[in-house]
Amino acid sequence: MDLFSSAVTDTDKRKALRAGLTSGELQRWPGAFSPLVAKLVEDLGFEGVYVSGAVLSADLGLPDIGLTTLSEVAGRGGQIARATNLPSLIDADTGFGEPMSAARTIATLEDAGLSGCHLEDQVNPKRCGHLDGKAVVETGEMVKRLRAAVAARRDENFVVCARTDARAIEGIDAAIDRAKAYVDAGADLIFTEALADAGEFEKFRAAVDIPLLANMTEFGKSELLTAQQLSDLGYNAVIYPVTTLRIAMGAVEAGLREISEKGTQAGLLDGMQHRSRLYELLRYSDYNEFDTATFNFTIPGA
């Protein structure tokens, strides 16, 4: 029975994430700002779900400057992870404190059903990776953070990804050197934050042997490369962290303006998700069949 949680076990999702990273096929992980969005990501055939720290903080009405807590991130991440059969990677910022806090973060995210997380080498508290004024810790400090995280996991399939923000601060060569140190510390995946263009992505790929993740966020410092370009460059995964939130908020703002100006939402209907499609994603008919003595509603159009 998978009406109330995922039909795939946490361990099997983690195995799927690892298998995808070594499959030779680019793993596409759109950001999901809610469990319902995660269901749609799965329905449309993507390989995984990403849970963005920037999106989670924005959804709480907060800027992405390290204000969210481990419990908030794990709680929302767990809701999203259990809504889909896909593996899910979550943004764990700097691990929410010192290396011991990073270790606790891994245990908490495992318990929440996530398939992996990434930890970054910014100072704590962090800021959005595409803002100016970032600062990174010494390489040795990040190595301690990663070693603590790797040592804390109980499921060997849980993916620990290391994100380096050093490109914008120390340059790409330093970022590559950091990535190599993070691989030695046990990272399974390297997140190359805020690279400028295809040439930099290619240079990073040539220098680092383990799977690499690209961030294709809008309005940031990176050139927006296509999935095919990233695949040709040898990248293993790509995230679109804030895309669905930006699409949704753009539509919400436009719709609210029209209601305010015209006094009705009638002109917006063609752009809305229809009730029948929402019911399809939510599997109303399956709930109805589960116990007709209790769930005896009629589904419009069924």
From TrEMBL:
Its EC number is 4.1.3.30. Its cofactor is Mg(2+). It catalyses: (2S,3R)-3-hydroxybutane-1,2,3-tricarboxylate = pyruvate + succinate. SUPFAM superfamilies: Phosphoenolpyruvate/pyruvate domain. It comes from the Bacteria. One of its GO terms (molecular function) is metal ion binding. Pfam families: PEP_mutase. Keywords: Lyase, Magnesium, Metal-binding. Pathway: Organic acid metabolism; propanoate degradation. GO terms for biological process: propionate catabolic process, 2-methylcitrate cycle. It is an enzyme of class 4 (lyase). Catalyzes the thermodynamically favored C-C bond cleavage of (2R,3S)-2-methylisocitrate to yield pyruvate and succinate. Belongs to the isocitrate lyase/PEP mutase superfamily. Methylisocitrate lyase family. This is Methylisocitrate lyase. The gene is prpB.
